[in-house]
Amino acid sequence: MALIKKSITEDSREEKEAEIVDIEKQIEALGGLHAYQRASLKGGDERSGRGACGKWLVQYLTPMASELREAAGTKADAPLKLLDIGALNGETYAKQSKWIKAEYIDLNPQHPAVTRQDFFLRPTPSKDVDRFHVLCLSLVVNFVDDPERRGIMLSHARTFLHNNGLLFLVLPLPCTKNSRYMTHERLKEICTAIGFQEIEFHFTKRLSYHLWRRVESGWEKQTVEKKMVNPGPARNNFCIVVK
After folding, report:
1. CA pair distance 155, 149, nearest whole angstrom
2. For the segment 96-154, what is each residue's pLDDT rounded down to a tens digit?
3. CATH superfamily to which 49-214 belongs
4. Which residues make up each annotated binding site for S-adenosyl-L-methionine?
5. From which residue to which does any coiled coil extend (predicted)?
6. Hey, where are the domains in the chain?
7. Most buried pick, 33, 116, 159, 171, via CB within 10 A?
């Protein structure tokens, strides 16, 4: 919020105060500061359902759809079930609605198609009918305020996926490129410890995309402690811990 206020031009005190109030209203309308920051990172196109994050994922889901259905034991013509956690809107996968059945949830939804729900409190599925072929955590994990809870969220996500299901993780680029405790290789170690295999990744100017597949055999959960892997004075402290 301080950074936003600093960007206000040097006008009269009254104009500054009015501008601050207007910005605060915009932030509140988007569901609070975290939602505002997510929306800013994703950009206007993401808010209107045409964002790059969804497009990047769909390009891989298209050729993998049959494989995902077969591994899950679902019908060959059934739509892929997708859970989008922290959704800004309910339209990201609207153009693919014939073959992707998306469910959108968020702590503080700002779109009628997004259901209010805390993913941490969502019960672990006991039946395959309640599981998903794909689960999206787009700019969500970085807003969890504790490294251990970030690990819990990723482990919890695994339980919602069908056999060989996919987890789509999006993080701000500094989380993997400028952290004392995280690099791309370290993130791969974490996903392996949780029971995933990274199959695709991509870096943009502001974001890192990671597509993980749930591993079914030869896997045993491991712990990952906080460890300095990229020391430096101008780095952040983003970290994920797995217990």
Report:
1. 10
2. 999 999 999 999 888 899 999 999 999 999 999 999 999 999 999 999 999 999 999 99
3. Vaccinia Virus protein VP39 (3.40.50.150)
4. 86, 106
5. 6-33
6. 2-30, 49-214
7. 171
